[in-house]
Amino acid sequence: ALDLSPHRHPALPPVLRAADVLVTDHSGLGLDFLVTGRPVVGFAPNLAPDLAPAAEAILDPILDPGHVLPGPVCRDAASLVQALGHALEQAIEPGATPSPHYARVRDLLLDRVDADSTARVLARLDAVRGRTR
Q: What is the bridge-based pairing of β-strands 22-24 and 40-43?
């Protein structure tokens, strides 16, 4: 078995760099992984429609995972296995074009993927304070 425990891997970035596909719940980790361009599969069995209404209200995230995660959101093990198979096929195709949904989420949440983010933040802070760099 592969040991991905925090004891063996106390930091997530090296694990994410090595991953071909990410399986996540409705946490922000899926959005962090989006920068890689690799597949993300959501797994949220607690959002299954057969939950009691009171439990569903407590567990409902603020945003619909289907809209903010770039891949499918599975609510049971069978759909997770199917989605993982599809995601792994995508992951091994170099230069594969992302699905329209993946591209939409990436464009929506990742304004720019480049090495200039810090410079933009500093310029914006200077502008707010009335300075120029």
A: parallel
Q: Which residues of 35-64 are buried (b: 16+ CB within 10 A; e: fewer)?
A: eeebbbbbbbeebeeeeeeeeeeeeeeeee
Written as six digits, the tokens of 75 are: 């609510």
The predicted pLDDT at position 63 comes to: 64
Phi-psi region of 33 (alpha: psi -120 to 50; beta: other; left: phi over 0): alpha
Within the chain, which residues score under 70 in pLDDT?
26, 47-63, 92-95, 111, 113, 132-133
Coil, helix or strand at residue 4: coil
Among 65, 56, 57, residue whose Cα is nearest residue 101: 65
**Residue 8, helix vs strand vs coil:** coil
| Cβ-contact 24, 53 below 8 angstroms | no
41: DSSP letter: E
For 61-71, write each residue's pLDDT tens digit. Answer: 566 777 778 88
The SS3 call for residue 99 is: coil
